[in-house]
Amino acid sequence: MKPIHMAGPWITDHEIKIVEDAMRNGWYENSYNYVEKFQHEFAVYHDRKYGIMTPNCTTAIHLLLTALGISEGDEVILPECTWIATGAGITYLKATPIFCDIDPENWCLNPNSVEKLITPKTKAIIAVDLFGNMPNYDQLSRLCAHHQIPLIEDSAEAVGSTYKGVKAGKFGVGSVFSFHRTKTITTGEGGMLLLDDEKLYDRCMFLRDHGRKKDAMYLNYEVTYKYMPFNVQAALGYAQFQRIDALVGLKRNQLKMYRERLSEIKDISLNPEPEGGINGAWITSIVFGKSYNLKKLDIIKKLAEIDIPARPFFYPLSSLPAYPRARVKYEPINPVAYDISSRGINLPGSAILTEDQMDWICNGIKKLINTCNLKLGKNHID
Ligand SMILES: Cc1ncc(COP(=O)(O)O)c(C=O)c1O
Predict the structure, then answer these.
(1) CA–CA separation, 53 vs 218, rounded Å?
(2) How far is the CA of 137 from the centre of ligand 1 (A)?
């Protein structure tokens, strides 16, 4: 069998044609033609007024936090379990990340935990649509409105997801997407910031290009960033975006196929899809129940022995060496994040994953569970 990849894109002749056009014609007066088309159409699709493409999603978050005026002494709440990029911009701005617990149902931030962490210093809350799952946006939006704290939606992993009929990317004052090479829509590296507020949009556009105003040539008013996208990168994103239904469909089908093949296994949870919502299923994740008494790294090691790659569920951010001493403070107040993260793994989800490979992966998981059953004297398979 060919090697199984964790992640990877689905590029067709359509993308190649459009990228070729950008290469041949996207210069001079067309230097940003695909950037503009992609930004505009991506925003419209998500029912947002403005789209701003960035070199990646990390920079999109940094841009928005800067535009919101986050600075030294401020606190920004974000969930424990996410990729470090969600919170990196907070540290760039010398503000303090405050880690909240996650919801055991959807593995996203828990609004009850957020509420307990709000102080007069809280200047923003970042929700993450983890692996395509959606948090309780009703409760979270009410909470943010009540405290007048801007909500940011990190929808980097959630293209194609919806919450009660509303697309991921429409929550809060702004949302961000990633087009990293591992994402459902890819530009290799790339990101997008979506906004509805004109002033915020103008500020972000100003910050994105060395603090100059529109049509102001070489007149810089502040020292800001250079977070401009490249037209060829945007052309690839635009072409992929035109195939969004197929790309999200592929991911959703992978989740469905994993669910079917693993359906007889007891006490495991895969990405939830609550009624009235759609899970874009960027990656399929499994959380093993406590009855297995298994830790994620042991599971990953055992699967690797039979050529199945897997990745750990995100570590709680406060447990990372990048945030020294944070664990002591947060582990006791965020026990769900610490517990779920210790038992979760992500399964392969590349676009070239075959059905045979998926069978191999699921049979491998069953083998692992059988070994575990023998050891524990339990039966986890119907
Ligand atoms: C939840 C989340 N936020 C932010 C990012 C950052 O995206 P990028 O790699 O495009 O900067 C990622 C990327 O993996 C992510 O998964």
Answers:
(1) 22
(2) 20
